[in-house]
Design goal:
homodimer; alpha/beta; Urease, subunit C, domain 1; 2 domains; eight-stranded mixed sheet; 34% helix; 21% strand; globular; Metallo-hydrolase_Enzymes (chains A, B)
Chain lengths: 401, 401
């Protein structure tokens, strides 16, 4: 099978030969090249690695439903309760998760780490909804589910047991959240999280909103457990909005420790990005960083639309990147950066100039999209996209909805 | 003439009667209402006040041209020189300004304050290019031109004289820039700016990138001159990125003084918005604030696309607004907030709940756009737009380009 007339990472017009779902050859584009009828016409578009959304909450989304005014009270607990009071008014979780995942795939995402909220109110209902979306799209995207204790592990009865059940039933990652500010007992919280990780031999992903040095304190507790349990390479910190908002020596130490323990990071490109650890320095230190869309038009926030290219623009914008190399690095992070979190065997980014994913030997997980250059494509966010997973077209000719 | 079946600010389906370019009546929508054949079919879309872009650089844009990698060196001088070294490689200024202004109108902007760079290199050539765009679209948008000394007033010979010529030839506003960090002689810089303002009886708009307390120092010099020359209501501060990044007492004092001297502000919704003066507090203090798109895909930055609805989303995002009232306030700022800077006789916003511009007596300067609610429209940024100025359709059925 051939993908004809595409420009890998903005390079020369090429034809890609696909064998067994992988790129077997990258050849100069030749309009006269023989074609068995199964080829994809790239029409001169860019061929880019498809997106990996490493931090999204499929189960909370209301994308495509009538818009609902925001009623959340501030803070994690207030927003969690706002969701709890209303989510049963919506169509079933499986319906909403399946619809959003389909939309994400149409726009170029083929790998997902989705949170599935586990709490005393919803039990495993949301987890099962995310499982249904994963199953519905299993040929189009790879979905890894995190069992996520959104309302804490200690505040309500039975949550660790529900987490344990989810991990025995298809959840692949153990989630944790704000060890200090939510459960207010960081040691107990983290002991449960890492205990479940040990029992299920699963990686850990901690959702960290805590400010300044409190966030650093929680992070240090996580680093300590990662080292003690030999979990190098298996721990992700999500958000970590504030780890760059303390003294420079501390943030430098954290980057070094993250590299040393192979802690990965998931960012959602927040408006307060300037308080986070600096992206380019994380990459240069060899720390795996991925991008995610977080909650999308849900009880938490009206933002988000299932489009990782929009979010890639947001990553560039919030980092105030202007040089093309850095803007294009955002696509590398949003695609292969995240992929290396979900599959640590994949090569990681170590330079902002790395442009992986469209070479001989790579899985043909691709987005074809218009753009003079990759930076132009990030700015323009064109809608004429063709999405391939393992060399097979899984979405084409996106119509704006 | 009628605009049928629209929802003003998200309200009930209505028919708007237009007389002499103004809204003469807002009536419940009645499909059977008599029609002389000149009506506009709103198709149930929102009817919103059209946008006012109060801070854009029409003359520097490269929108629609082949994407050019960013070559700017950091800092205002480095970026100015990058532009100077390359801008003559592009099509004539008049062509580029006219094309972008047309695109801005298609997306819903009908009022513009555009910078026209005046410097020793370009003389009046850029100013004349902006003048040509203003003339080309004179029936579709109102354009106010600022004579803007991008490379300073003191560093190169003859700039004040060029500014004087521009102000005698159609420029309506005197620009200034970073009194301390660019010319490095704030008193001389501001004396020239305010001297030209007095001579031409023109308002002043100062482009302020200066950090922290240096920005406050320059601002205080500007406030002093505003008071001494009786220029209340005629001075705008643009950018002022950093006036919220000092001690709280100082930022509070500045907001009070801006209200007292009727200083207005133009923001471009930068990524570092959290360092600026707080938008909602400015509004509540009665300070006029408008939104602008700044440079758009130019030698300074690859961002910007002529779409003020995108920029309105950016204003909400960078302010981390989630409640609907605040998100909708961003549209009020982007439309009537800016309009009150360009025409101080217009009513100003004094509450984040103000929803002006679509009532009996208002000029029929409107955008019709899809949206369940106004906040949903800001999130979705739909492309099916009809734009009216003074009751006349000036753009319709936007096709994505």
């Amino acid at each position: 099978m051939l993908i004809r007339n595409v420009r890998p990472w903005g390079g020369d017009a090429s034809d890609l030969q696909i064998l067994d779902g992988r790129i077997a050859a990258v050849m100069p584009h030749d309009p006269a090249r023989a074609d068995d009828g199964s080829s994809v016409d790239g029409r001169g578009r860019l061929a880019m690695p498809s997106f990996s959304d490493v931090h999204c909450h499929l189960d909370s989304n209301r994308v495509g439903l009538p818009f609902r005014p925001h009623t959340g009270r501030p803070g994690v607990w207030g927003l969690t309760m706002n969701d709890r009071e209303h989510w049963r008014e919506d169509p079933p979780v499986a319906e909403r998760t399946t619809a959003l995942l389909g939309r994400m795939i149409e726009r170029g995402t083929t790998r997902v780490r989705s949170y599935a909220q586990i709490d005393a109110d919803s039990g495993l209902e949301r987890f099962e909804g995310v499982l249904a979306a994963k199953e519905a799209h299993k040929d189009r995207a790879e979905v890894e589910i995190m069992a996520f204790p959104q309302a804490g592990l200690l505040l309500e009865k039975g949550v660790p047991e529900l987490m344990d059940q989810a991990l025995a039933s298809g959840a692949a990652v153990v989630g944790g959240i704000d060890p200090c500010t939510l459960d207010k007992d960081p040691v107990k919280h983290l002991d449960i999280v890492f205990g479940l990780a040990e029992k299920h031999q699963a990686p850990v992903d901690i959702h960290l909103h805590e400010p300044g040095h409190l966030g650093v304190f929680s992070t240090d507790l996580i680093l300590e457990r990662t080292r003690a349990l030999g979990m190098q390479g298996k721990v992700t910190l999500s958000h970590a909005y504030e780890l760059g908002n303390v003294d420079e020596a501390t943030t430098r130490r954290l980057i070094e420790e993250f590299a040393d323990l192979d802690i990965s990071m998931a960012t959602i490109a927040p408006a307060q990005q300037m308080h986070a650890l600096p992206l380019a320095e994380l990459t240069r230190a060899g720390v795996r960083v991925g991008l995610g869309e977080d909650g999308q038009r849900d009880y938490w926030s009206p933002y988000g639309n299932g489009d990782m290219l929009d979010r890639t623009w947001q990553l560039a914008f919030t980092n105030r990147y202007r040089p093309d190399e850095l803007i294009e690095h955002c696509w590398a992070v949003a695609s292969r950066g995240g992929a290396a979190i979900l599959d640590p065997s994949l090569e990681r980014l170590t330079s902002t100039a790395d442009r992986p994913g469209v070479s001989v030997g790579d899985a043909a997980d691709l987005v074809l999209v218009d753009g003079d250059t990759v930076a132009a494509a990030v700015m323009d966010r064109g809608t004429d996209r063709t999405v391939l997973r393992a060399g097979r077209v899984v979405a084409d000719q996106l119509q704006l909805v």
